[in-house]
Design goal:
Elements (H helix, E strand, L loop, with lengths): L1 E5 L5 H15 L6 H11 L2 H7 L11 E5 L2 E12 L2 E9 L8 H15 L4 E7 L6 H6 L3 E7 L10 E8 L1
Parallel strand pairs: 4-5
Antiparallel strand pairs: 1-2, 2-3, 3-4, 5-7, 6-7
Helix pairs in contact: 1-3
The structure holds coenzyme A.
Keywords: Acyltransferase, Ribonucleoprotein, Ribosomal protein, Transferase
Protein name: Ribosomal protein S18 acetylase RimI
InterPro entries: Acyl_CoA_acyltransferase, Bact_Acetyltransf, GNAT_dom
Length: 168
């Protein structure tokens, strides 16, 4: 059975592991390995994930996880970014568990949190060309709004993301 819940302190290592495996499986043809490893080292060290497990509302609503038979199989987080608007900051699954509806469970969880904090629209940035992500958001009603340089990237990385939005 799959349980979607707020993360606990002792989930930090499993959450980092999901991000490490997710990044390395999703982006190898889209981003340089240097950029992938830099993002993982900057944003998703076990220490940083551990510090950010807890919510700091409304801007950060805390990591949420999908757990199946005691194992973490996906993680996501979101927060309020402007009055009436929220963002899904991150969503990854164990790469071997895609296509079973787990992403939808986590997306719905974050949308529910954002609604509780007054959001009527939800945003997400997805790397241009990410065919493991873009079709998912389009299937769940998100539409492309604008293309921007990827957060955390430099001009040299030449990485671009689509910002998608949807009413919630
Ligand atoms: C994106 C991701 C979280 C989606 O989770 P998931 O559990 O695989 O998706 P679901 O099984 O809930 O699928 C929901 C819908 O999206 C569609 N979908 C999902 N991934 C798809 C893909 N790569 N291509 C086409 N359709 C896709 C499904 O067909 C389904 O639509 P339907 O219910 O209308 O048939 C997951 O695939 C993942 O971790 N991808 C790699 C990492 C990534 O890109 N994360 C997002 C970064 S912003």
């Amino acid at each position: 059975m799959v349980l979607v819940r707020a993360a606990r302190d002792d989930d930090a290592t499993a959450i980092r592991d999901i991000f490490v495996r997710g990044y390395r499986r999703t982006y190898p043809t889209l981003l340089s390995s240097e950029f992938i490893e830099r993002m993982l080292d900057e944003s998703y060290t076990a220490e940083r994930v551990a510090k950010e497990v807890a919510a700091a509302p409304p801007g950060w609503l805390g990591y949420q996880v999908a757990e199946e038979d005691g194992r973490i199989v996906g993680a996501a987080a979101g927060g309020i970014t402007a009055p009436g608007a929220g963002e899904l900051f991150v969503l990854y699954l164990d790469p071997d568990e895609r296509g079973r509806g787990l992403g939808t469970l986590l997306l719905d969880r974050i949308a529910g949190q954002l609604r509780e904090f007054g959001a009527g629209e939800m945003w997400v940035a997805v790397l241009d060309g990410n065919e493991l992500g873009i079709p998912f958001y389009e299937a769940r009603g998100f539409r492309k709004v604008e293309r921007r340089r990827t957060h955390g990237s430099t001009e040299a990385d030449d990485a671009w993301s689509w910002r998608f939005s949807r009413l919630i």
